[in-house]
Amino acid sequence: MNSIPNPIPEDKQHFIALALAPKVGPVLFKAIVAYAGSALAFFDFRTAQVAKIPRIGRKLLEIRQQRESLLFKAESLLANQTKEGYRVLTALDEDFPKRLKANSDAPVLLFTKGNANLNVPRTVGIVGTRNATPYGKAITKKICEDLLPYQPTIVSGLAYGIDIEAHRAALTLGLPTIAVLGSPIHFIYPASHQGTATQLVQENGALLSEYGPGSQMIPGNFPARNRIIALLSDALLVVEAAEKGGALITAELAFGY
Fold first, then answer.
1. What is the arithmetic mean of pLDDT over 77-81?
2. Are 82 and 1 a contacting pair, CB within 8 Å?
3. How far apart are CA 85 and CA 87, in angstroms?
4. Checking DSSP bridges between strand 109-114 and strand 206-209, what pairing results, if any?
5. For the whole model, what pTM was predicted?
6. Cα–Cα distance between 201 and 178 in angstroms, integer?
7. Which residues pair with 87 in a beta bridge?
8. CA dihedral 182, 257, 31, 42 (to 10 degrees)
9. Which end of the chain has fewer beta carbons closer than 10 Å to its terminal beta carbon, N or C?
10. pLDDT tens digit sequence for 104-122
């Protein structure tokens, strides 16, 4: 299991730049940082040193050639945080979700809106079918009511059906709730849930996405975000699920973790 060393704070811009590099997913990112010591050190490696990195080698030379453009993107994301109302969180930051740090496939870079504590003592994920029945909606609300004495943060995906019912029940009860998006942080999908997303940000909740402003929204983003829901959840509850739906994928991921 790869973990990230504790790079110096000055490395943050280079950390973001490397995380933004094409085809550098979390596993490869952590392998690079584990070998180099930090993203900054990697970018400062000589070409011959990069070529010798085990299992990575010459594939990363192209990333080195994009250093200036990647650093510019990272700088722009950091500079625009206040104006555009989001925050860039990296695994270097103290308030980055600790539940994500020990998993090799967890994101190392997140974009967030809202004030929810991402490291609360208790979290419960609630997911389910997009085609929720009245029974499923009622059970979702009942589950949140029963959890109220324990004051967990409710985690879900802001999707149609059970997801949005879980967020709305949490808001009604005054429980913090985190919505993990499959869309870029500045784009709410589905658009009909914009009102709930806004309320969530204003009322001790948070939106989380591994996709920053300007990112493309593609279908593969949504299955990928399921792993974040699973990783953030101490317990995961599935309320009504199709046999091949995303909810059971999330449950399988949670079981694996």
1. 93
2. no
3. 7
4. antiparallel
5. 0.90
6. 9
7. 112
8. 50
9. N
10. 889 999 999 999 999 999 9
